[in-house]
Structure formats: structure tokens, C-alpha cells
Amino acid sequence: MSEHIVSRFDEELKDLARRIAEMGGLAERQVDHAMTALTRLDTTLARSVIDDDRRLDLLQHEAEEMAILTIARRQPMAMDLREIVGAIRISNDLERVGDLAKNIAKRVIALEGQFQSPKLLRGVEHIAELSLAQLKNVLDAYATRDLEQATEVRDRDGEVDAMYTSLFRELLTYMMEDPRNIGFCAHLLFCAKNIERIGDHATNIAETVHYVVTGELQLDERVKQDASSTTTVAFEG
Amino acid sequence: MSEHIVSRFDEELKDLARRIAEMGGLAERQVDHAMTALTRLDTTLARSVIDDDRRLDLLQHEAEEMAILTIARRQPMAMDLREIVGAIRISNDLERVGDLAKNIAKRVIALEGQFQSPKLLRGVEHIAELSLAQLKNVLDAYATRDLEQATEVRDRDGEVDAMYTSLFRELLTYMMEDPRNIGFCAHLLFCAKNIERIGDHATNIAETVHYVVTGELQLDERVKQDASSTTTVAFEG
């Protein structure tokens, strides 16, 4: 490639990276706001989360288009190709994180005026803190191409899953104790699941960082500790 | 492009299309088997769905890699580029459909030996039939590049969503009527949600067909009728 083309290519890569960074910041903020809206049952904040999701969808489409056009125009070498493929994958994950935050926000609106007991929210807050930390850490790992930090995120996904499994049991127990909790807890079950899935996306991003840096895929190796799909809670009424 | 290169390129496109067709068939079968496993509470079949999901994950990674390399090597024109980008998007959706089928299968295993009433399953069967039909139709639409059929799938997504919202209410009502239903119904809530999301992926694929054929994106237009996230069910105990 001539110097001129190289510098245009570098410009495109930088532009793509900026877009992913913007998406990362926005996704983090959306999750944070959705959780604040949930714990304070703040429907105004919930509505702003719902509205702001469009921005993430748009950025994702733009990032994907930009990435594909860069590949088509520049025929990049393997290392640069990995960078671009990594950007596409991460923008997909961040867009889905945004969808999950939006879904939590929608449930905040559903919960308005329902019977609710603050203790029911405590477990959800807990898992949300961990998932959000995972998301922040993996975005840092991506920004600095820090393989060690990415591996740490991937290794800690089991904690999120284990926390979710125990929360699933806990919420079912509350439902059995007092049927007035059922409506509230059903929505909290989905919020908890959404938060667990945000953790999964953090892990996907960690695997993408690994792929970008090393060129290796990490298929089938992940240890799944989310046992909630196979969890039985006996009725003890 | 020379004739030689053109024919190699056509070969690559056909190869990619074959892989997507294989993924489509497999995803359909996985959803079908997961639902049969659920309605018959057949844990053997459920386990085979869980095992077979790896094949879809692998195919998706291969399709993505093949697509990206084709773009990088051949610098395709706009129309061909859309074909390839479409294939990447559809393979992503199909891989996620497979994950949702796998999650239903996992819940079948959790439901073994639990208190269960067959009437609880009826609504879930119903929505599954519709979602599976949506998936079949959109894969047909993709295979034949049938814009009309794709639009029909997109338009019918509201039916899936509306059915899910009423099923959500119904399952909550069963939980309130008899706390012994809570464990079973909690898993069914997630199964129903998974099925509704399979319908969403069918709609995504319909939008991709539209994009491949026309070059236009269909952002922000979709009418969302899934009101379950904002549905309140009062306790009437």
C-alpha cells in the first residue's frame, strides 16, 4: 500500500475504534441507569433509557457498515482484519447489552404501583454490580489490548452465573411465601436473567479481545455455571 | 475480474449460501425438537438438543470467517457485498435461535419430576407453532429472495408478541391460583420468552432479506406489540 492509502486506512481504523468506544460508554451508562431506575423505581429515568437505546442501534449499524466497507476497500492483512472483525463482534455485543438494559427499563414501568418489598431488590442489585464491573473491565481490556484483564473477566463469569442461580431460587421462594409477590418477582426474574446475560456479553467481548490479540478462537471452552435453567425449587407451602 | 476469478468468487458465494441453508435446517430442527421435548417432557431428546447446539456454533463461526475472507479477497461490488453481509447477519440470528432452543431443552431437564399440569403447556405449544412457522417462512423467503414473503413474516411478528403477552398473564395467574405451579410456571415463562425471541430473530432475518434485495435498512420502523415487559398482573388471591 502507498503511504497515502496506509494513512487513510489508519484513519478508518481509528474512526471505527472511536465508534466502539462511544458505544461502550453508552452501553455502560444504559445499564447503570436501568439499574438505578429499577432500584429507585424511577419511571422517568426508565423512559430515558428506553429512548436512548435507538442511539446504540444506530451506532451499531454504522460501525458494521464502516467495518465491512473498510474490509472491502482496503483488503487488510490478517492482523488488521482481526481488528476489524473484532470491532464488528464487539459492536454486536454492545448493541445487545443496550437491548437488555432497555428491557429492564420497560419492566420498571410495569412495576409502578405494584406490591413491592425492597428486600426483593437486594439480590438483583448485587448481581447488577458484578455484571456492570465485568462490562467496565472488559471494555478497559479492549481499549488497552490487555489479555490478562480479558482472561480475568472470562474467568469471573462463573460468579455471575452462580449468583443468578441462587437469585432465581430466592425469587421463587418469595413467590411461594406470599402470592402478592408473584407479579413483582416475575419481572425481577427477567431483570436478573437480563443482567446475567449482560455478563455473558462481557465474556463474549473478553473472548473477542483474546481473538484480536492472539488470532485464536476460544470455542467450547467456557465453563458454564448458570445452573438456573436446570434448577428445581420445591414447593414448601 | 477475470473469468477465472469470477467463477472462484461464485463458488465461494454458493458455498456460503449452502452453509447458511444447513444452519437454517439445523436451527429449525433444534426448535422443533426442543418443543417436542418440552411438551412430552422427554429429557433424552432434550439432551440431544443441548449436544447438537455445538454444531450450530461451529457453523456460525465458519460462515462468518468464510464471509469476511471473501470480502477481503474479492473486493465485491455493492450487490454482492450485501449478499455476504446478509449471510453474516443471518448466521448470527440462526446461532442465537439455536441458543434459545438449547435453553428450552435445559429447562425440560429442570422440569423433570416437578408438579405439572398439562394445561399449563398448551399456551406455550401454541406460540411455539407460530414462531416455528415464522422461522420456516423466513428461511424460505431468504432461499427464494421473496420480498413479499419476508414482509409477511415481519408483519406477523406482532401476533407472536401479543400471544406472548397474554401467555405471560396466564402463567402468572396459574402461579397465583396454586403455589405448587410456581416452579413449573417460572420455567415456562422463560420458555415462552425464548420462543417469542425466536420470533424476533425470524423478523430480523426478514429485515435482512429486505436489505439484501433492496439495499435499504429497516431501522426503527418495527411495531413492537410485546407488552409483557410492561404488563401488570394484579394479585386476586
TrEMBL record, chains A, B:
It comes from the Bacteria. InterPro entries: PhoU, PhoU-like_sf, PhoU_dom. It holds the Pfam family PhoU. SUPFAM superfamilies: PhoU-like (SSF109755). It is found in: Cytoplasm. The keyword Chaperone does not apply. One of its GO terms (cellular component) is cytoplasm. One of its GO terms (biological process) is negative regulation of phosphate metabolic process. Residues 20-108, 125-209 form the PhoU domain. Gene3D superfamilies: Phosphate transport system protein phou homolog 2, domain 2 (1.20.58.220). Keywords: Cytoplasm, Phosphate transport, Transport. NCBIfam families: phoU_full. Plays a role in the regulation of phosphate uptake. Homodimer. Belongs to the PhoU family. This is Phosphate-specific transport system accessory protein PhoU.
